[in-house]
Amino acid sequence: MNFRNLVAAIAVGVGTLATTVVAEAADKKVVVAYQTDALPSSVAIANGEFAKETGYEIDFRRFNSGAEIFAAIASGDVQVGYVGSSPFAAAVSRGLEVKAFYLASISGIDEALVVRNGSGIESLNDLKGKKLAAAPVSTDHYQLLALIKSLGLTEKDVQVFAIPQPEIVASYNRGDIDGGFVWDPALTELKKNGKVLVTSKEVADKGAPTFSAWVATSTFAADNPAFLKGFASVINKYYASFASDKSAWGPDSDNAKSLAKLLGGTADQQASALKNLTLLTPEVQASDAWLGGGEKAGAGKILKDTASFLKEQGKVSDVLANYGAFVTADALTGVSN
User: Fold this and answer.
1) Which domains does the chain have, with CATH numbers?
2) DSSP string across 148-184
3) Tens digit of each residue's pLDDT (9 = 90 or more) over 278-321
4) Which residues form the signal peptide (predicted)?
5) Rounded to an integer, what distance in angstroms lies between the CA atom of residue 285 and that of residue 103?
6) What's this model's pTM, rounded to 2 decimal places?
């Protein structure tokens, strides 16, 4: 090989290598959707630890609801997102291929039906004839409808408005609605001029459990298992800190201040909201009761029960035979407290 050919060959080789490196770098980009819920792991969004741990360039985008996030996933704009079980059930029932790989929280007191002072609502028996609201296709919307049904009422007896949380707060403050089933920061805002009538946990105990989860498109999950493991390990680090070091999460803590800067509200409000969470350890999540067990997965059963209820309500047209394929414990393998 003469010098000219050797240089050309080297150039081709370097070009190929450069193309490969660029391609690999491009592959390590992901768009992750989050919401305004107070979660310990959101500190890692603020400080960049998710990107550092996974080695990916992460574009974090904030949304107002799980329904909006699933619309973005369906359009191809988002690959990973934080969603509730009701929009999750609706999305996969309509054919969207996603997998839940980490449970952010389960039904607790972080979501609740708050009724306005002066609305005339003192107990659940006073809901007939009232106007209530929840975010469209959210876990709160699902639980509000389930609550109404458990009381022997229908949407003809109780007016239910499916509107985004910012609109719920505005309508509530104007006196246009009597109450809203919401999460923070709307929960804190509504409680300023009202009281909690029933919590998400109480509705779950009546037979309508919910959860919130981090999901990934099935294609992204299959192609990027190391990313999901790294992402899950960061979440677990912050959850473990929250469980073991309460002083690090108080109203004067750097963590609470980071959450306030990222999500809005004050550090005191964020610290208070965190106390309302019901969190699960990786070991519990990986069990058959939640993400493990394939078709026997408990989270899959919750999705199916939710989809069945949504079909009764005319919100979805089909219920799948099994929802276990949409949850996985793979990212939790080797992850511990």
Assistant:
1) 29-107+210-332 (3.40.190.10), 111-206 (3.40.190.10)
2) HHHTT--TTTSEEEE--HHHHHHHHHHTSSSEEEEET
3) 999 999 999 999 999 999 999 999 999 999 999 998 889 999 99
4) 1-25
5) 7
6) 0.85
